[in-house]
Design goal:
About 50% of the residues lie in helices and about 10% in strands. The chain is of the alpha/beta class and about 325 residues long.
């Protein structure tokens, strides 16, 4: 096994290369991971009892100790997978068991990690039931930055699905999420995972219908991919969009932005770079940066949600 205890790791540089977190961040997460592990185990045990009541007299934690005998090893295992994204064969070889056992361990530990990040209030929101919920989340700042995040995925075998997943812009099959950050680079909201052919602005209108006053009290920073938001979200307090370069025509053969427009775009870019930094640091976890080999849509969404939660952990600490 490549890991026995955190003390074996020499410094934060090595720890971040293996898990994506520093040693201090790992310890902070481990404290909550222990209680979350017990809670998830008990919940899964009760669910099994409903389907198999004859197992009522069996202990929920019976049997010999497994390969990952400590909670520290369990947390390292799931973080190592998300950070480096090896195949199940490689993962099992490194930790001393088969690829099937590696898959089973991940299926049990991913919900525990999700429960831990939720307990620390680090997971971004996935949907808002009302406009007031969004306004309450933004609190006093009333400023958000919105952008789309794409990840490559495997080519679906179904013809309709592969057409939906194919992104003409990236020339490959992708999945996409919309994220909202504040000016402190904290990811506040993560949309559902959509197909790569879905335009960023289309996804924004699907998640935040222009018929409701979502941004009435909020300033929103967008890029040119959301061109037209001024018209559709007329109720918004203020939508910051860069100036678009005019089209070339006979009347204007050399279109260009004025110096004032270029200066406005520069100021806008200085604000929007916060969301670009958030996207870049989130993709330090290789399960979000490289082509996702997993075919289950639930895992594609889970990877993104956990990655943003772990990013928020690094930002908060």
């Amino acid at each position: 096994m490549i890991f026995k205890s955190l003390e074996e790791i020499g410094n934060d540089r090595v720890c971040k290369a293996l898990t994506g977190l520093t040693k201090n961040q790992f310890k902070q997460l481990l404290d909550v991971f222990a209680s979350s592990y017990q809670a998830v185990q008990q919940e899964q045990y009760e669910q099994r009892l409903k389907s198999r009541p004859q197992r009522l007299n069996r202990r929920p934690a019976g049997g010999p100790p497994g390969y990952l005998s400590t909670l520290e090893q369990k947390l390292f295992f799931v973080l190592y997978y998300l950070k480096n994204y090896p195949t199940y064969d490689v993962l099992g070889y490194l930790f001393g068991f088969s690829s099937g056992h590696a898959h089973d361990h991940l299926q049990r530990l991913l919900p525990v990690l999700q429960h831990s990040l939720a307990a620390l209030k680090l997971l971004p929101e996935r949907r808002f039931a009302a406009v007031a919920d969004l306004e309450q989340l933004i609190e006093k700042k009333q400023k958000i930055i919105v952008d789309g995040l794409e990840r490559p995925c495997v080519r679906p075998q179904d013809d309709a699905r592969q057409r939906a997943r194919y992104s003409g812009k990236k020339k490959r099959h992708m999945v996409k999420n919309l994220i909202i950050t504040d000016h402190h680079r904290r990811i506040l909201y993560l949309s559902r995972t959509a197909d790569g052919s879905t335009h960023d602005y289309t996804l924004l209108k699907q998640e935040f219908s222009p018929r409701l006053p979502w941004f009435k009290k909020i300033q929103v920073w967008l890029d040119l991919g959301f061109y037209g938001a001024h018209t559709d979200y007329a109720h918004a307090m203020h939508i910051h969009l860069p100036h678009k370069k005019p089209r070339k025509s006979k009347a204007n053969p050399t279109p260009a932005l004025s110096p004032e427009q270029k200066q406005d775009n520069k100021k806008l870019a200085q604000v929007r770079v916060q969301v670009e930094h958030a996207i870049g640091l989130t993709k330090s976890f290789h399960c979000l940066a490289h082509r996702v080999r997993n075919h289950l849509d639930s895992l594609l969404d889970t990877f993104m949600w956990l990655g943003t939660g772990l990013y928020n952990l690094k930002v908060s600490l």
